[in-house]
Write a structure and sequence with these properties.
By secondary structure, the chain is an alpha/beta fold. It is built from four helices and eight strands. The protein has a four-stranded mixed sheet with strand order 1-8-4-7, covered by helices on one side. It has a two-stranded antiparallel sheet with strand order 2-3. A two-stranded antiparallel sheet has the order 5-6. It starts with 14 loop residues before the first helix and ends with a helix.
Length: 191
């Protein structure tokens, strides 16, 4: 997932590099132990990316049972004229949103084969994060997005899917987002 000024073929200028930035901030500034999985599961096609990622994430969780929070970091895809940017402390900062899968549709109700025992936990967590972000960084977090599938959020009661900016943002705008995002994560999750 690349940004407006990403270098083609250089994952460090795309979402993987942004994940590395978030990892560094959470580790160095807040003292968390972070395992950053840089696997790419949607290179050829986005179809079934979550199914392809699931075995790898399950293995990571099995090998690291002390993991308490899962963050799946992405960037959104928006119309080319849409700019998801705000000013935070004098810096252009990409706006982000929390994304939740409900494992249900309006039309048919629960999607039984996509069982998720943590829907309410994950919704509560994203609501706490959104409210905290609105308190400390008004305008930075977009609305919480709800969708019918589960997006591997069934793996933990603290599983997050975060869409940081979009393809129309610059890498620097996205990187500028990681400090306030880390602060909000620490405020809510670190207590």
């Amino acid at each position: 997932e690349a940004f407006a000024d990403s270098v083609p073929g250089d994952v460090n200028t795309g979402i993987v590099g942004v994940g590395e930035c978030l990892t560094k901030i959470l580790t160095e500034q807040y003292g968390y132990r972070v395992l950053h999985n840089t696997g790419q599961y949607d290179v050829e096609t986005r179809d079934n990316a979550y199914s392809r990622a699931l075995p790898a994430v399950e293995q990571i969780l099995a090998e690291n049972p002390s993991i308490q929070v899962i963050i799946d970091l992405h960037r959104d895809e928006v119309a080319e004229e849409t700019k998801l940017v705000t000013d935070i402390q004098g810096r252009p900062t990409a706006r982000f949103m929390f994304f939740n899968g409900l494992s249900r549709t309006r039309k048919t109700g629960p999607i039984e084969y996509l069982h998720n025992p943590y829907i309410e936990d994950n919704l509560a967590l994203t609501l706490q994060l959104k409210l905290t972000c609105d308190q400390y960084y008004p305008g930075l977090a977009r609305n919480i997005y709800l969708k019918s599938l589960r997006y591997n959020l069934h793996l933990s009661p603290k599983a997050l899917l975060i869409e940081a900016g979009a393809q129309t943002n610059t890498l620097q705008e996205i990187l500028n987002t990681m400090e306030p995002l880390a602060n909000v994560l620490d405020t809510v999750v670190g207590g």
